[in-house]
Amino acid sequence: MTASLAPTFRFHHPENPLAYERLLRAAPRTGRCAVWLADAAAAGPWSPAPVPPLDPLAVLEEWWPGPGLFPGLAAGWRPSREEVLDEAVAWAENDAGRARLVVGTGRGPAELLATLGWTGSPRDLAGLSTVLRSWESRFGAVVVRIGVDDLVLSVAAPPRTTVEAGRLTAEHLAVVPGLEARGYAARLPGARVWRLRWG
């Protein structure tokens, strides 16, 4: 099973929330970060990709399905790094379940999608990683679990108003083609977990 991972990745032992917390907090210094990988996703396929610097607004404008122009980025509340990490660890303590803890090259979970070469989304990994980093900055939204065709994000600072939720919904619609928009914005205020699925 380990051999099927991308060369830049390895399974970590022990696989527990304490080890996850230690790796996550050290990532900016070590350049090695951790994420939980669903059992079914461990077989790949993998296609590692570079992550060039991109503008998240430009990426979302390009992906926006319409109608009309993309409404712009939701402002977000920009939580502290401690708040972001605490929320991610809290998710792991409660919901990691049977997922495997893996470690790879990257200063944060968003970069791991590219270094792992995840193929679960039709969106290009450079653009997706860029948007994910932007969500982490604005909402404290961190990729905590990678599935076959889905991502789970813990969210430290979800939108608080319907206006912000509406703009964030537009961002999610741009990232996930075919996402059911009806009632989506109403579920975002206060939501501490986002689940994005492309399958």
Mind telling me the C-alpha Rg? 16 Å
Q: Unreliable stretches, pLDDT < 50, 5 or more residues?
A: 1-5
Query: What percentage of the residues does DSSP assign to strands (E)?
Result: 15-25%
By helix and strand content, what is the structural category?
alpha+beta
**What order do the SSEs take from the amino end to the carboxyl end, as H and E?**
EHEHHEHHEEHHE
Count the beta strands.
Answer: 6
* Strand order of the biggest β-sheet: 1-3-2-4-5-6
Helix content: 25-40%
The tally of domains stands at: 1
Q: Termini distance?
A: 23 Å
Number of alpha- plus pi-helical segments: 7
Mean pLDDT: 90
Sheet with the most strands?
6 strands, mixed
In one word, what is the shape?
Answer: globular
Quaternary form: single chain
Task: Give a written overview of the molecule.
It is built from seven helices and six strands, in the order E-H-E-H-H-E-H-H-E-E-H-H-E. The chain is α+β, with helices and mostly antiparallel strands and 199 residues long. It has one domain. A six-stranded mixed β-sheet has the order 1-3-2-4-5-6. Helix 2 crosses helix 5.
